[in-house]
Design a protein that fits this description.
By secondary structure, the protein is mainly alpha-helical. Helix content is 73%, strand content 0%. The longest helix has 42 residues.
């Protein structure tokens, strides 16, 4: 009996020690992120005003155009080989699966919560499209920073490489599927006349809006993706799908206008096209594919090209690399990403959620579904993939990143699409605010579960 009780005590102590270790690995990184965000919020307060709105915009542009590309290029380029590229094929597939499952859940949320009719597609997108950008990088950087090294000495390099390898598919989905899902409803769009009087009023309003915008803190969406709103045109803020697929004459007129200057043979070819094919072509031509080439995506493509060729890889990466000084400089710049991102995020969250017409019930439904209900489904997807043998069994960070992709709040770039389309901006900002506040608790809880799963496989 005494021996049995001693064994029970030893088992309880061992289990308690493992649980404490898992909690430390999960809570401490989140507390690091939260501390940096809190400092950003504190420094953005009007009484202190160190992180001013103009400083936030400048810092966010540095993150977007310099720090993030440097981090992606150095970490992904050193890890990338042709064999690894073939081995990592499930990373973008996992992103697509998470979006597919999330959008199905978004339809259910929209049917149950019954948001205003004009926000039905908005609800689907904000529930289904998770963040694949800066937030996962910040979490991985916080987990790998320290002496524990839960995923090995190359913890940060592997994690950043996996996240960066998934970004290109996420951006493609957002600039195609999400872009059209978030188009403004036709009944709420007001056609602007082109007479001189209204043009002058519009110019005055634009100047006033620019002045107010320069004096206020940028939203979360415009802070992480600062160039998206600058690329907005009036054409992007008009309903396209409703006009093309509802009125046959619209697609014909659009085709005629787009074919201006073409040869008569091209006009005949357009006229000979089936109606459905013509409509699909018009929609494809109006999709802003040109905006896909953002600095982070360019850095990812360069890293892949450099990495898969051994000669160029040896030229830039490694202890004896002739251009190692150049990549070391980029590494130093990339190390500034996590603190700068968290300071910017804290500064933008300091202004509060703002107004929203989405409704409390729908806001709670999207947040709970995105942060609480979808991660268990993601666990099932990743474990099934592991059982099927499509995930490397000896790479724990690989599986951790796959699990983390199902746990993130709504993609900030999806919110930036509302700014580009000119509809639902306030609702997206408020929703992203509440999701990022809630994600502090949910991500910490799920990291404990993920670490337990990874350690047992």
């Amino acid at each position: 009996m005494r021996l049995l009780s001693e064994q029970s005590v030893e088992l309880a102590v061992r289990v308690g020690g493992e649980l404490q270790y898992m909690i430390e690995l999960s809570v401490v990184p989140v507390m690091k992120v939260l501390t940096m965000c809190a400092l950003g919020t504190l420094l953005a307060q009007p009484r202190i005003s160190i992180i001013t709105p103009s400083a936030t915009r400048l810092l966010s542009k540095l993150v977007f155009a310099l720090f993030l590309p440097c981090l992606i290029f150095t970490e992904l380029g050193e890890s990338m080989t042709l064999a690894n590229m073939l081995k990592w094929w499930f990373i973008p597939v996992n992103v697509l699966l998470s979006y597919f499952v999330g959008c199905i859940a978004g339809v259910i949320v929209a049917l149950v919560c019954k948001p205003p009719a004009r926000f039905f597609r908005f609800t689907v997108v904000m529930t289904g499209i998770g963040n694949a950008g800066n937030l996962p990088l910040a979490i991985i950087g916080s987990i790998c920073h320290g002496q524990t090294h839960p995923f090995g000495k190359k913890c940060n390099q592997a994690g950043v490489a996996y996240v960066a390898f998934s970004q290109w598919i996420a951006v493609i989905v957002i600039y195609t599927f999400v872009y059209h899902m978030l188009e403004p409803p036709e009944e709420y769009y007001e056609l602007v006349s082109e007479d001189a009087e209204e043009g002058s009023v519009k110019g005055g309003n634009a100047a006033l809006n620019a002045t107010l915008e320069s004096e206020s803190m940028p939203s979360v969406t415009s802070a992480e993706w600062p160039d998206v709103k600058d690329a907005t045109t009036e054409e992007m803020r008009t309903p396209l799908l409703a006009r093309v697929f509802r009125y046959p004459s619209v697609s014909s007129q659009t085709s005629a206008v787009s074919a201006d200057g073409d040869s008569p043979r091209a006009r005949v070819r357009c006229l000979a096209e089936p109606r459905v094919i013509r409509k699909i072509r018009v929609v494809a031509e109006k999709t802003p594919i040109r905006h896909l080439m953002q600095p982070p995506i360019i850095a990812s493509l360069l890293a892949i090209v450099v990495g898969i060729f051994p000669n160029t890889n040896a030229l830039l990466f490694g202890d004896d690399a002739p251009l190692g000084w150049f990549t070391d400089s980029l590494t130093i710049l990339g190390a500034a990403l996590v603190p700068c991102v968290m300071l910017v995020l804290g500064g933008t969250l300091s202004v509060g959620p703002g107004s929203s017409e989405l409704g409390l019930k729908t806001t709670i439904g999207i947040t709970v579904t995105r942060l609480v209900l979808l991660p268990p489904i993601g666990i099932g997807v990743v474990l099934l993939a592991h059982r099927l043998g499509v995930i490397p069994h000896d790479d724990k960070m690989f599986m951790f990143v796959l699990l983390l992709q199902h746990t993130m709040p709504t993609a900030i770039l999806s919110g930036a699409m509302t700014s580009m389309r000119g509809y639902g901006e306030r609702e997206a900002s408020a929703l992203l605010f509440w999701q990022h506040i809630s994600a502090v608790v949910t991500i910490a809880a799920y990291i404990v579960i993920f670490l337990k799963i990874v350690s047992q496989l």
